[in-house]
Specification:
GO terms for molecular function: adenylate cyclase activity; ATP binding; DNA binding. This protein is mainly alpha-helical and about 900 residues long. A 5-stranded parallel sheet has the order 2-3-4-1-5, sandwiched between helices. β6 and β7 form a beta hairpin. α8 crosses α9, α17 runs antiparallel to α18 and α28 packs antiparallel against α29. The two termini are about 55 Å apart.
């Protein structure tokens, strides 16, 4: 019986009941050592009924070994790789070391885990001491946990707090365990230590502070040793001290065996006994530890009675004895585990051990364990006698730490790196600076390391610096660095890149011809399919600036499909930023929302702030179109506060679009005018028509003339028909000539732009008392705004219609088939219509096949179909 945990066990019961009905859930249970987290997992396992139970734990000594935690958790379940899509099967096999090595991706491994759990479900998955999971296992499990939906899987993870390393689990439900209430603590003490006197029980209750394990250990100590002094000592330390005293009472050979077990990371009884045998302990020496319930043997595995027992044994042992235990384990184990134990037993620099660790690091890279690569190279550097080799290994460690998101560790490693690796170190420090959203610091770091006497190195650094400054809209630095690059041998491509960036920024100020010419010069030699994704994205952004929406759309659509097929989640958010913006341009608002929301989820998984801000800006523009002021402001706030362009520019445009739709013309204009007047207006081009309309509505045509002229030059030079249509609308607003409005509504345009032109034309005709014609255009505009989901604009058109004397209501927009579905249902249906199986759809959408089936099951009746074969004819 668990005392004082009625609410917590009831919550878990509800989750288990849901799993039996096909619902999934993930819960992180946090609390201090001994508070009852493990007991709650035991209770969950006891209540699982017929559900299979997978159970694993993070182990401190395994913290640096890639996928060690995942391997322990999955056990024989990992043998079902044949049930996984080929790419996932390869990734998981490589991660667990059961297949050929390949370039690992923790997120693709996470998708494989999700699929594997779904195939085995319904089930209960328990992970204790998650704070000690290796980085790769934690990333994979959290990725899977965030995508649980309809697999019938319940995942419970416990985390000891306060503790380092921490365990960040954003997006998952959390339960924090506090101390037991007095009544429950007294009941537990009466049950387990009833022989203590009332005074002794009261002292134990006070000292334990409601911590169940502390209560039991302190009462056991009282029974064995009598009164003790109460000091101000943390609960965890008191518990560990109690365990240490119990261990100290055991025979020396038993303590030796327990020390080897605490240093081991496999739980393999045969390996522990073999290593202990080298130190004079045998199987018979296990019995005293088992009698004391400190260490137990179950089949071929050894397990400590509580994680704190392992910590107490290892941390209280002298260094020389710990090193001896590690050397014994190195002698009996194979592969990477042997190398790590050998390193733990090596107190001074030793190139042979360092080289073995470096080889271990590269094997870890093949398995996708970037944190393990960093750990191995860090320890290898510490054991490396040669300073130059040590510096190279520290840079390799920093690079891997950066890939793993361990930015503080990477920064510290680079601080220790000498001049020999300055170029690689500078590039990494710049990446770290941008990860902190400090692009300015990034290019300053790169620029600082340039040296005219080393032109080839300087060109490499300047290329990254120009790109970082462009991303930060710092065109003064772009110009300076481009000029510097032009003086260096081999620096012409960097100078050309800088010229294009400067030209792109001047387009917003009206210098259109030169700007477009510079961008087209670069676009004439596009990167191929094998090029770096960042280069291809840069070119897609250039296409947007030149107005080639179709070209950019095609490029990023290909990149998105490729990233999904290969499970490359790290690149997806940046791709989805441009994809969502293209969809927004072309009136595919539902698709834009779906893309942006999916990108935000993946950006959260992969820790990418800048793409997240840009995706939020897309959603803010959609909220503005819908007239949802609260959501628009919420989505825009962070980008505006951080001032990170282009997200901040698009966020300002979203708020001005909102104001324009709601008839608040002055703030709409003033906000954008402030951005345009700044030194970094890039991204403003698409907002210039908003300024034109706001200024005209305010009766300030002079303020509209400049933005209108700039946009007209850009539309003409771009040669894009849709842009010419917007320019014609701007001209009509300035001239107020019905003929100009007529030209605008009959010109090619994207849906929202066309509807706005129709509204303006209808309003102009009504003012001329041409009521019949006005009704035609106003009705057309109102219906278009309804289809586009733009209530404020639709209401404005209806209001104008009523002013013409129109009594008939605007025909309500009948939701099309796609609007009947949720976002994920629509994604699943579209892929199913292409003939993909549930497994293939799950791989594309990063969902389990069961969840895909759940979405299709819900979608079919909404669409009025009974089979997958009917989907292709729906045109979704």
């Amino acid at each position: 019986m668990l005392h004082g945990r009625t609410d917590e066990t009831a919550m878990i019961e509800r989750l288990l009941s849901g799993a039996r009905e096909g619902a999934s859930a993930a819960l992180v249970i946090r609390g201090e050592a001994g508070i009852g987290k493990t007991a709650l997992l035991d209770a969950a396992a006891a209540r699982a009924g017929g559900l299979p139970v997978l159970r694993g734990a993070g182990i401190e000594s395994e913290h640096e070994l890639p996928y060690a935690g995942l391997s322990l958790l999955l056990g024989r379940t990992a043998e079902r790789l044949d049930r996984l899509p080929e790419g996932q099967a390869r990734a998981l096999a490589a991660a667990l070391g059961t297949g050929p090595a390949g370039e690992g991706d923790p997120f693709l491994v996470g998708l494989a885990v999700l699929t594997l759990l779904a195939e085995a479900g319904p089930l209960l998955c328990l992970v204790d001491d998650a704070q000690w999971l290796d980085h790769a296992s934690a990333a994979a499990l959290l990725f899977a946990a965030r995508r649980l939906e309809a697999e019938g899987v319940v995942m419970l993870l416990t985390v000891r707090e306060p503790h380092a390393p921490g365990f960040q689990a954003a997006g998952l439900a959390e339960l924090r365990l506090g101390g037991l209430a007095d009544e429950s603590a007294q009941a537990l003490l009466a049950e387990r230590a009833g022989e203590l006197s009332a005074r002794e029980r009261e002292e134990v209750l006070v000292e334990s502070a409601g911590n169940p394990l502390a209560l039991l250990e302190l009462s056991a100590a009282r029974r064995q040793s009598g009164p003790y002094s109460v000091g101000i000592v943390p609960v965890q330390s008191r518990i560990q001290q109690g365990f240490a005293e119990r261990v100290a009472a055991l025979p020396e050979a038993t303590r030796t065996l327990m020390l080897v077990a605490s240093a081991d990371d496999t739980g393999d009884a045969a390996a522990v006994l073999a290593a202990a045998g080298l130190l004079g302990a045998g199987p018979a020496d296990l019995e005293p530890a088992e009698r004391a319930e400190l260490l137990t043997a179950s089949g071929a595995r050894l397990a400590f009675g509580h994680p704190l027992i392992r910590s107490a044994v290892y941390q209280r042992a002298p260094l020389a004895r710990r090193m001896a235990a590690h050397r014994a384990l190195a002698d009996v184990l194979d592969g990477d585990r042997s190398v790590w134990h050998l390193a733990a037993a090596t107190p001074e620099p030793d190139e042979d051990v360092a080289a073995a660790l470096a080889a271990t690091a590269e094997r870890a890279r093949d398995r996708g364990g970037y944190a393990a690569v960093a750990a191995a190279y860090t320890r290898a550097a510490e054991l490396t006698p040669d300073p130059a080799v040590r510096a190279r290994r520290r840079v390799a460690a920093a690079r891997a730490a950066t890939d793993a998101g361990q930015f503080e560790k990477a920064t510290e490693l680079l601080r220790l790196t000498g001049f020999e690796e300055r170029v690689h170190a500078a590039k990494l420090r710049a990446v770290l600076a941008e990860s902190r959203d400090d692009a300015q610091d990034a290019y300053r770091i790169l620029l600082h390391e340039t040296d005219p006497a080393a032109p080839s190195d300087s060109v490499v650094l300047l290329r990254d610096a120009v790109a970082a400054a462009w991303r930060n809209n710092d065109f003064e630095c772009v110009e300076m660095m481009g000029g510097f690059a032009g003086t260096l041998k081999g620096g012409a491509p960097v100078a050309t890149l800088a010229t294009a960036a400067l030209a792109a920024n001047r387009i917003d100020r009206g210098e259109v011809a030169d700007g477009l010419a510079a961008l087209r010069a670069l676009l004439a030699d596009p990167p191929g399919e094998a090029a770096d994704v960042r280069d291809r994205l840069l070119f897609a952004r250039m296409r947007l600036i030149t107005g080639d929406i179709a070209g950019a759309y095609g490029e990023v659509s290909w990149l998105e499909r490729d990233a999904r097929e290969h499970g490359a989640l790290g690149t997806l958010p940046a791709v989805q930023v441009i994809l969502a913006r293209c969809q927004l341009f072309t009136g595919a608002h539902r698709d834009a929302r779906l893309t942006a929301e999916d990108g935000l989820r993946i950006a959260a998984d992969t820790g990418q702030t800048r793409p997240a801000l840009e995706l939020r800006a897309v959603l803010a523009e959609l909220a503005a179109i819908e007239g949802d002021e609260e959501r628009c402001r919420e989505l825009s706030a962070e980008a505006l506060e951080r001032g990170l362009a282009p997200g901040s520019v698009h966020a300002a445009a979203a708020l001005s679009l909102l104001d324009l739709g709601l008839g608040r013309y002055e703030p709409a204009f003033d906000r954008l005018a402030a951005v345009l007047a700044g030194s970094r207006p890039m991204g403003m081009l698409s907002a210039l028509p908003l300024m034109v309309e706001a200024a005209v509505r305010l009766g300030r045509p002079a303020d509209a003339a400049g933005p209108a002229a700039t946009y007209e030059r850009w539309a003409r030079e771009s040669g894009q028909a849709w842009a010419e249509g917007v320019s014609l609308r701007n001209r009509a607003l300035l001239t107020d000539d019905p003929d100009d409005y007529a030209l605008a509504v009959h010109h090619e345009a994207f849906p929202l732009d066309r509807a706005r032109a129709e509204l303006l034309y209808g309003e102009r005709l009504r003012r001329e008392r041409r009521m019949s014609e006005a009704r035609t255009w106003l009705r057309t505009a109102a219906e278009a705004f309804e289809r586009l989901g733009a209530p404020p604009w639709a209401e404005r058109a209806r209001r104008e219609l009523r002013a013409t004397g129109e009594s008939r209501a605007v025909r309500a927009h009948a939701p099309d088939l796609a609007e009947r579905l949720t976002a994920q249902e629509l994604q699943a249906v579209r892929l199913a219509a292409q003939g993909l199986s549930n497994r293939e759809i799950g791989a594309r959408l990063f969902l389990s096949p069961r969840t895909v089936g759940y979405h299709l099951y819900n979608a079919f009746p909404k669409l009025g179909v009974a089979s997958r074969g009917e989907l292709a004819g729906l045109g979704l």
